[in-house]
Design a protein that fits this description.
Strand content: 15-25%
Helix content: 40-55%
Number of helices: 10
Shape: globular
Order of helices and strands: EHEHEHEHEEHEHEHHEEHEEH
Oligomer: single chain
Strand order of the largest sheet: 3-2-1-4-5-7-6
Structural class: alpha/beta
Length: 293
Amino acid sequence: MAEKIKAAILGSGNIGTDLMMKILKRGKNLKMGLLAGIDPSSEGLRRAREMGVLASDKSIEAVLADDDIKIVFDATSAHMHEKHAPMLKAAGKIAIDLTPAAVGNYVVPVINLNDILKEGISGLNVNMITCGGQATIPIVYAISRVVRTPYAEIVATIASKSAGPGTRLNIDEFTVTTADGVVKLGGAEKGKAIILLNPAEPPMLMNCTIYARCESYPEKEITDSVNQIVAEIQKYVPGYRLKVPPQFLGDRVCVIVQVEGAGDFLPVYAGNLDVMTSAAYSVGELIAGKLLS
């Protein structure tokens, strides 16, 4: 068997479990080394053990005790990652943060991952922003690279059933971090983010509306740019699609995207979680490939 990089996941909830399934099913450069949580009776830890994955309720202590673990995915909470980040850095482990803690460098694979990796990966900490950020910031970027964008606003609407305790706990951080990413990576001069939890039954797929204010715009160039970025995202999030192509309304450009989950562990309506775990998995695979080379 070809050599692979040993990875750990902190957090045994829905996001951690779905990410574990992706590594087990598709891992080319990554292999599951450990799933760590805090609850001995966690369903995620039980499931990991049944699948032959080492599981521990000792959380960060279990991760730090294994020198062979090179990459750590943190799927806990923003508050917890703030504590974990310096510990992981001191241990020389690469952190891929799936919480909106915003400790490390923001990364959206189609925008800036290669640029970050050029700076070196030793002790790297990258922040996956938020699920809404992964789904919408690329669209803002696709517009702003064509035309000056003084303001952009995103509205992420997700099924209430797909918003677990971690998502609900981090809603304030979600809005702040996503809006910050709209500016820092999306290229808008000012940004705003809104998240809506829809209790509809049956549960709806994730839908995101992106508004960008532009004083003038070349319609074809913006449309081509958006189509190109959507095709790039689909390489690692197959369920990502353009629901409404760019609409040009006065001084605004409006785009709507939809995300359907891959169903690796979570229901397909949980596209908000799948876009995050898919993006994080793709980042981990690329980093692991760099370590192997």
